[in-house]
Design goal:
There is one protein chain. The chain has one domain (about 1-259): P-loop containing nucleotide triphosphate hydrolases (Rossmann fold, 3-Layer(aba) Sandwich). The protein is α/β, with parallel strands linked by helices. α1 packs parallel to α2 (about 40-50) and α1 (about 15-25) packs across α11. The protein has helices at about 15-25, 40-50, 60-65, 95-105, 110-120, 135-145, 155-175, 195-205, 220-225, 230-235, 240-255, and strands at about 1-5, 30-35, 80, 90, 125-130, 145-150, 180-190, 210-215. An 8-stranded mixed sheet has the order 3-4-2-5-1-6-7-8, sandwiched between helices. It is about 45% helix and about 15% strand. It has 11 helices and 8 strands. Bound molecules: adenosine-5'-triphosphate and magnesium ion (MG). Adenosine-5'-triphosphate (ATP) binds next to α1, β7 and α9.
Length: about 260
Amino acid sequence: MRRVIFNQKGGVGKSTIVCNLAAINASENLRTLVIDLDPQGNSSQYLLGKQASDLKPNVADFFETALSFSFRPTPVSTFIHPTPFENLDVMPSHPDLDTLHGKLESRYKIYKLRDALNELDEYDAIYIDTPPALNFYTRSALIAVERCLIPFDCDDFSRRALYTLLDNVKEIQQDHNAGLEVEGIVINQFQPRASLPLQLVEELISEGLPVLESRLSTSVKIRESHQYAKPMIHFDPRHKLAHEFVALHRELIGAGAAG
Ligand SMILES: Nc1ncnc2c1ncn2[C@@H]1O[C@H](COP(=O)(O)OP(=O)(O)OP(=O)(O)O)[C@@H](O)[C@H]1O
Ligand SMILES: [Mg+2]
């Protein structure tokens, strides 16, 4: 199963959710890959620590190969590196993604990622982290996957953006990827004791949006887990948030195929 975690709003928990779900998946003996398409490289750093910066070859090198013709294309596995966690690999990000963006877009390399992933059959699951924008990289990812998971942070301002986001996904589905499905909206940084977020979530559900049952609460532990470059299941497996990530993973698997 390939999935992208996407919301064009920044700071809603995309990278945190990608790495925690991928780490749980890998811990269940499933070969798992994270692809970091965000030039900020937060997922790469979360999984690899300081060594993530300037790791080569990376996802920018992968896209670079799309711009030059070769009789013998470089296999996509070349750009993948192991993480310290068993069964978990990463195609790390690089800031060069920013400079490559315009060239890739103007030369219409939007199917490059999908075609490369079609050749990669050693993974049970692929999780793609995206930048907070609907740009070439997020479109490439939405074209390359079967599932799209949308984190939402209970902010009233981002509610309208949710409808635009769902329209954008539908358009990509119609024009490029009939197999694409929104697997759900996951509420992150949920505060069950505050009445406003609760009301907002109830409204989304009554409007027919596919809100998942699993909620992720707010905890400062997540910052520590980033700092130590260890997803929650390894950093503090008994923590409430670690359990919530496991429940979310289970809900997603229950709704679809392995991984
Ligand atoms: N459940 C949570 N509890 C507390 N803090 C959280 C939680 N989820 C995310 N955060 C914090 O919110 C910030 C944004 O998280 P993250 O980087 O995962 O979001 P993002 O959507 O990937 O951001 P960007 O759009 O910039 O890539 C981080 O500082 C992270 O520590
Ligand atoms: Mg991020």
